[in-house]
Write a structure and sequence with these properties.
- The chain has 98 residues and is an all-alpha fold.
- It has one domain.
- Helix content is 74%, strand content 0%.
- It contains 6 helices and no strands.
- Helix 1 packs parallel to helix 4, helix 4 packs antiparallel against helix 5 (59-69) and helix 5 packs antiparallel against helix 6.
- The longest helix is centred in the C-terminal third of the chain and has 23 residues, at 75-97.
- The protein starts with a helix and ends with a helix.
- The model has no long low-confidence stretch (mean pLDDT 93).
């Protein structure tokens, strides 16, 4: 499963940030939230949308992976979110490869 950290790393690369502090500032995150995402935690829908807008990708991709990371959801719900995220990611990859 794709972790939110991957998207934060993409953002840092895209924006050319040289430190975690710069990346946190772009996303409007405090240290605790940033560490949570870096360590595999889920992200709020609002932050997922903001991150997706910066990366110019579908928010559903990030939201889907984020929802699937939540420990309290059922296996069925987790699979629904993962399938949605993977579908959105495949669409993005197909556009890149065209």
């Amino acid at each position: 499963m794709k972790l939110i950290k991957v998207y934060i790393d993409e953002l840092a690369e895209k924006m050319g940030t040289k430190s975690h502090a710069e990346t946190m500032k772009i996303l409007g995150l405090g240290r605790a939230s940033y560490n949570k995402y870096e360590n595999g935690g889920s992200i709020s829908d609002k932050k997922a949308i903001e991150l997706a807008e910066i990366l110019r990708i579908s928010p559903l991709e990030i939201i889907g992976y984020s929802k699937a990371l939540k420990p309290q959801i059922s296996r069925e719900e987790k699979n629904l979110w993962l399938n949605l995220a993977k579908r959105e990611e495949r669409k993005r990859m197909e556009k890149i490869n065209d």
